[in-house]
Every structure is written in C-alpha cells, then in structure tokens.
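Q: My labmate handed me this sequence with no annotations at all. I'd like to see what the chain might look like in three dimensions before we decide whether it's worth expressing. Could you predict it?
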Amino acid sequence: MKVCIMGQGYIGLPTAALFTRHHCEVVGVDINEKIVNNLNKGIIHIEEPGIADIIKNAVKNKVYTASLTPQKADAFIITVPTPYITENYSCDLSYVVSACESIIPYLEKGNTVIIESTIAPMSTDETIKPIFEKAGFTIGKDLYLAHCPERVLPGKILEELVHNDRIIGGVTLECAKKAREVYGQFVEGYLMLTEAKTAELSKCMENTFRDVNIALANELAKICAEIGVNALDVIKMANKHPRVNIHSPGPGVGGHCLAIDPYFIYAKAPETAKIIKLARDTNNSMPEFVCENTKKMINEGKIAIFGVSYKGNTGDDRESPAYEIIARLKEAGFEISIHDPHINNEDFVSFDEATKDADLVLILCDHNEFKNPNYNLISKNMKTPIIFDTKNIISKVPRGIKLYNYGNLYELN
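A: Here is what I predict for the chain of 413 residues:
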C-alpha cells in the first residue's frame, strides 16, 4: 500500500513512520521546504521518542519520501492544523480544504481519503465531501471518505498510535470499512466503525471533557487562594474518594487540542454549550492569575522562566499559556530570562544564566529537569531565592528558599 500524508507535524510524521515500519511506501507532504529537505536527509524536526530512527531507516530504504507536492497513492491522509476563528470560535477549515483540493489531481477511483485533523461536527459532510463530489467522484462508490481522529499523548505518540482504540467515521459504511483497512496496517487497538459526524463530535468531546475537568481544578485553586485553604491538600484528600479524580491546577491549558477543540462544539451551539465556554474562559484566565500572584511575590526585578512547552518533557509549545504569561510580565516591567531544555531557541538561556541575579524562578512546565533543580546554584545565583511552581512538581525545598505553589498562595493575601 502507498500512503500520501498531508502534513508532517506532530501527527503526520509519526503516522508516516508507522506506515513505513509496516511495509508501506509513504510520501510525506509539507509546505515547509526546509522541513522537507531535512526529512529527505533523515533529519526530523519534532521531539518524540523513536521517530528519528524510523524515519532515518525509511529514507535509507527508500520507503519514505518527503515532498512539497502530493503523489498518486492508494490512501491519502490529511493531518494539517485546524485553528479556530477568533471572531466566532468556529473551526478554520482553510488548511484542510486546501489540502483536499491539492490532492484532487492525484486521485484515482478506488482511493481512500482520510481526514485526521480535528474538525467541527458536520464538517466532513457539509464542507469536505462536496469538494470531491465537485471533482466528479461519488463518495462511497469510487472514492472513500472518512474522518478518523487521533488520540495520542505527546512523548508516547508511537505507542499510542499503535495500541489505542481508533474511531473510524465513514461518510458511508463502505467508506468506514475502507478506512479500517488503511489503519489495519499498523493499529492494534480496536477500530470502531461509525458515521463521520459522530467521529467528529467524539474527538471534540474527548478534549472538552479534559478541558472542563482542568477548569474545575483551576477554579478550585483560585477559590482556595481567596479563602485561605491549601488547594493541593484539598485535591489530595478528595481524590481518596473511590469515584473522585480532581486534576492538578496549572498555569493554563495549551496544545492544539484542549485549547481549541472545545470551541468547535461551542460555535455549533453557543446558547446551549454554556459549561464548555465557561471552562474555556476559566482556563484562559489562569495566565492573568499567575501574573497577579507573581507580582505579589516581587515588585520588580528579574524572573527566570522555567519551561514554555505546554507539555512536560516535549518541545511542543503550541498554544502554550507560558507565552501570554511572559508577555504580561514583560509589560509589567519585569526582566525575563527563559530556560527550556526541550526547545531549541537562540533567545533561551542556560539554567545558570537564567537564574543569575534573578529574583524569582517561575516554573511553567513540568519537565523532569525542573522537578529536582540544582538548589545550590539557585541559592548562589539568585538575589532572592523564591520559586513559584505553577505545576506543583516540587514538594520540598532547602532552607533559605521560599516555595510558592497552589497550596499556599493564600499567604500572599
């Protein structure tokens, strides 16, 4: 089987890697010429365990090629971004539409087209299907169209792409069956056949569920800071209940899923989806909450930012709340130095340089490197050894260092 994958990012590239490992020929299409050139040399651009070796071997064995343009194939998989439109929170399908239109000259009867990009409910039937019908194809007879969303955890993408159950949403039953054949090349989880619109809403709702539960934890943290209760103790004790699992509060919600997908549901039914919108508003308010408490800890000076990735132990900073926090603190007049060992950015600095003459360390990401930092260097370098841990990953610090987290913010009031 030959597979053409549109988009070689955090989903497209791992998917391509797995198809090559299961005796498929893959062409990975991306609009970034630098990425394409590097991929053809076996050089990847994302941090994800296991992928680099697979792509390097696939290029060597000539079963993987990166390209700026599509090629003829048996199956086409669309994995391009789907941001939201800020004016009305609806799903921006422009990248998906462009990708679908770009493959039309390469389509042949009997091909399967799969949309993996997260899209709003009804998008496949109302927007994507007409593109191919206009080109002369009959969906379900000579072209098979399905929406098959991914559900993976950064840092474990390869493992989860193989072992997680998969939703296969066909425009018709025959479309779903054809898409199942494609994923059957490497997926070992259960392949659930359904309608495209059900698959679309299921994916959006998975991330909405998580976003709402994070919002509950974040709201609790705010309440506890206001009334003088240790939020972390409340969560720890409440979670001893056999049917309670309150999440950990944080600096906000990032990533291309949780921070965006709930809006796709809200935009479809804004008068009804009130909890969903309130959860989004709550999570979006956390950067301001972090900044206001930071300003209670120090009035001026230098802040060492530890981590801008939205997810620990990855270099993925998409929609990261860290950037809003940094912008707000700079606007408030603070000097900012940023340290993130998982992101290659020439403006970021080392641990030593970040903490040099700093008045506060602000932890915004739960990288393993931050869970037990060099306290001797912190004490030696900093003007005032204060740590504000918004990820609640440090439980105890040496004498002489002040630790704030969501358990003791009420001390600032």
